[in-house]
Specification:
15 helices, 475 residues, alpha/beta, seven-stranded mixed beta sheet, globular
């Protein structure tokens, strides 16, 4: 029997007559059903959030923190159930699913410690002027399918901490774990403060255009982000957009191939490459290209592709059929153009499950689709470079600017190169490390605004300046 899940609206778990099927990408079997919310259910959730905002914005900070810690505790206490459910709907291996669940609990707790203190602008004989931060109101959150739990927490926690209330829409591909969390926290958060709903793609534009939603926070593709920005412009909603990336890694000639090969592999292939900050273009200096590319290919041959619920799986399936078809199309395009493959390149769209073999290309041209486009799958192009100036120019030659990395034995040189990359985040000798205390956001077409840290928290607030004329000074 297929389990039916419910939405969280105004502190209650509710359902709808129409339901959506949720499929396990490892075998394409239906594993759950969720409500297909429409305008009526959205209006109900927004009304609940609007009513709750009147009280929540006045709730003391310590009480808001306590509610966030209750969410963190519920996730951690039920982690074993949650990570298995996450694997079944998203496809990622158990170990990576554990990382997402425990990471969501840890980030909730860490972000709850943030605080936006008043800033004194003037304290003179004439007046006292200070800037305080006030919550924007009702937030509409829209979450993708690659990290459904982490991205949900990334929106719920700062909204709550700032004094906002939120209506969160999950991806229709991966709603189950988030709805199970909703059930676990329904009695731990005041009614209406957090509302979690599900629906088809048409629910997103309803959220963006809803007149009683004050801010949109979205994680997903750049194309959809542009539509959200356009829709939000009608009533000047505040927006935060964390969008696509075509992230470049630069490997300098002094890097040790034996030490960095495994790290470079996982910088591209974690979560089957379905990570906005994954290394999607790897530039290797010509002096070590042959040795390092061979080491990466050798390591790749040891990694098992399969069902994320099976022991030993390192790379799971693509999460959904649409993305699977896109990745297969990019691989076929590379084959049609005669590009050389170091690993993989063969696909079987007729098989059960959305599996793409680990695929590594050998020095394709800069204008190849697999280099110029964000692949968002287990496909890695390796390219040679000869000079620092050349590789920086190539790395920056993208409409995206989300993240990047530099690998070198000389950390100072790594920082020098990092400062020339046109991205919001750059790592030197590591990858994908995000801190709840450091802002994360993109440059160019990779986003608008920031998440995490105090900068991310400010996104959910307005600045308000209060100036007091002192009594002892003549008018």
């Amino acid at each position: 029997m297929v389990t039916q899940y419910k939405n969280l609206i105004n502190g209650e778990m509710i359902s709808t007559t129409d339901m959506l099927d949720v499929v396990n990408p490892a075998n394409e079997e239906v594993i759950g059903q969720v409500p297909a919310c429409g305008q009526a259910e959205l209006d109900q959730a927004v009304a609940a959030a609007r009513a709750a905002f009147k009280t929540w914005k006045k709730t003391p900070l310590e009480e808001r923190r306590a509610a966030i810690m209750a969410i963190s505790g519920a996730i951690k206490e039920n982690a074993d159930e949650l990570f298995r459910l996450l694997t079944s709907e998203q496809g990622k291996p158990h170990q990576q699913a554990k990382g997402e669940i425990y990471g969501a609990a840890a980030i909730s707790a860490a972000q709850s410690t943030l605080e936006l203190e008043d800033e004194i602008n003037e304290d003179s004989d004439a007046r006292l002027s200070r800037t305080r931060r006030v919550p924007v109101g009702v937030v509409g959150g829209i979450v993708p399918w690659n990290f459904p739990v982490m991205m949900a927490i990334q929106k719920i926690v700062p909204a709550m901490l700032s004094g906002c209330t939120i209506v969160l829409k999950t991806s229709p591909f991966t709603p189950l774990t988030t709805l199970r969390i909703a059930e676990l926290i329904a009695d731990k958060v005041p009614a209406g403060v957090v509302n979690i709903i599900t629906g088809n793609d048409d629910l997103g534009p309803m959220i963006t255009s809803h007149p009683d939603i004050d801010k949109i926070t979205f994680t997903g593709s750049t194309a959809t982000g542009k539509k959200i920005m356009e829709g939000a412009s009608a009533d000047l909603k505040r927006i935060t957009l964390e969008l696509g990336g075509n992230d470049a890694s630069i490997v300098m000639p002094d890097a040790d191939p034996k030490k960095v090969a495994e790290q470079l592999f996982w910088s591209s292939f974690q979560n089957a490459g379905q990570v906005c900050i994954a290394a999607k273009r790897i530039y290797i200096h010509e002096d070590i290209y042959d040795e390092l590319s061979a080491a990466i290919a050798e390591y790749a041959s040891q990694v098992k592709v399969g069902d994320g619920a099976q022991q030993g799986t390192g790379v799971g399936p693509i999460q959904n059929k649409k993305q699977f078809d896109r990745v297969v199309e990019l691989i076929e395009d590379a084959k049609d153009n005669g590009y050389k493959f170091l690993v993989g390149g063969e696909t079987d769209p007729s098989g059960s499950g959305y599996y793409v073999p680990i695929t590594i290309l050998d020095n394709p041209p800069e204008d190849a689709r697999i280099v110029a486009e964000e692949q968002f799958g287990p496909v890695m192009p390796l390219m040679k470079f000869s000079s620092e100036e050349e590789v920086i120019e190539r790395a920056n030659n993208s409409e995206y600017g989300l993240a990047g990395a530099v690998w070198t034995a000389d950390a100072e040189k790594g920082v020098e190169i990092a400062e020339q990359l046109e991205t919001g985040t750059v790592w030197v000798n590591e990858f994908m490390h995000l801190s709840p205390f450091a802002p994360f956001g993109g440059h160019k077409q990779s986003g608008f605004g920031a998440e995490y840290g105090k900068e991310g928290l400010k996104e959910f607030t307005y600045p308000q300046v209060i100036t007091v004329k002192k009594d002892n000074v003549p008018a």
